[in-house]
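Preliminary data (for renewal application), iron/sulfur cluster complex.
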Amino acid sequence: MAPAEYFHSVRLLRDKCQGCVSCVKACPTEAIRVRNGKAEILADRCVDCGACASICPYHAFSIKTATLDGLEKYAYNIVLPAPSMYSQFPEQVPMEDIWQGLHNLGFDEIFDVSLASEYIAKEIETYVKNYTGGRKPLISSTCPSVLRLIQVKFPELIKQVVPVLAPAEAAAIYVRQKAEAKLGLASEKIGVWFISPCPSKETNIRQSVDVRQTALSGSFSLAEIYGKLLRCLGGDNTLNVVTGSSYGMGWGAYGGEISSAGLENALAVHGVDNVYEVLEQISMNKMPTLDYVECNMCERGCIGGCLTAENKFVAESNLRRRINILRSQEPVERELTMASSMTLEDFPRSAAYLKKLVARPMMHLDENIMEAMKKFERMEEVLYSLPGLNCGACGAPSCQGLAEDIVQGKAHEIDCIFKLRGSVHKLAQGMIELAKQIPISHEPQSLNAVEEDER
Ligand code: SF4
Ligand code: SF4
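Predicted structure:
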């Protein structure tokens, strides 16, 4: 079976690449190679986490997202701001001013994703409590890059992924249905937009791995919208926006998910390397007594996404202050607080909209199984001959990666600098040996001998 075509919102700007290999080592799925001095992304491996874009010192990546012109295609536009968006502003900027600013940018309606997060938290809580028999811990499903990482690198963990919608998707389903009923508009006439802190949301809208059909029309880069919003914040403040509680707001940073689901025997992991390490340990069954792991591919959670405008630590502090203000006005008990904000009728339940998460094998050595086995054997031989330092200097992320590329005819053994040094050394030795065999009469005359002849 030929590899499928994958949509990627993370794109390489080849001209800007200086071949420094920083991105090669940062990529969790070994999806980048530097060949002939330029990076290349292997489409079947990329999970659109944005780690490469965050680390590249030459800004050689772009992220494809929607632009505001897209609003013109629809008769009615709804925007879904998430907690990560509020975190870009200090708490002195009222949420009403942010909503009015979004309205000024051309959105007809605003729905707060933090409220949807609470419904999803309830589903997680129920699922975890009723889970019996299977392997633990369960793993959160709300970060699309984590889902893709599991598909590509840890397919054995698919069964442990909790089957719930990402809050933005659940919010989109809800507002789309309500707008259709309220306005009598066909679904195609309604635009539903997310303001995203990272590339993975746009990728999952264009090519979803977990929902049958997305209700989102697209996502905007938070950094881009932020710049435009700053110029038009505030105004009449006449919008009627239903918001979530402090628990829904908490989803913007790591730990918010498990806190709103009331899970205590749980971990909140954030950052590409940490998520990878924890998934690896779960895969080796090293955390069997834990109930749940919340995974955020971005450092410190969504507030650390590569499409945010504010420094992630400042954003985290902004968010925590907003949460504290909300919490000071709420009942002490989580249950009571969430029950008083979750008053929407007909909020969608995840099960009706999800599709099965499937493995996405990343190594296609050959279409033919016999050929693939031969190549695998050859790959093992090559790997054995490499130094095993995983230095990345060859442009592949590891010696295993280089061995695979060599077997596939995409690289040479001497791309490894240690192999190259060995070959140069051997060549030099050979030349010295050859030089020793040259008969005296064939040796070039020394300068002194020439001078003596001339005298
Ligand atoms: S980080 Fe990657 S894309 Fe950026 S300059 Fe270095 S090799 Fe090129
Ligand atoms: S987006 Fe993530 S997975 Fe894709 S190439 Fe960049 S670092 Fe690798």
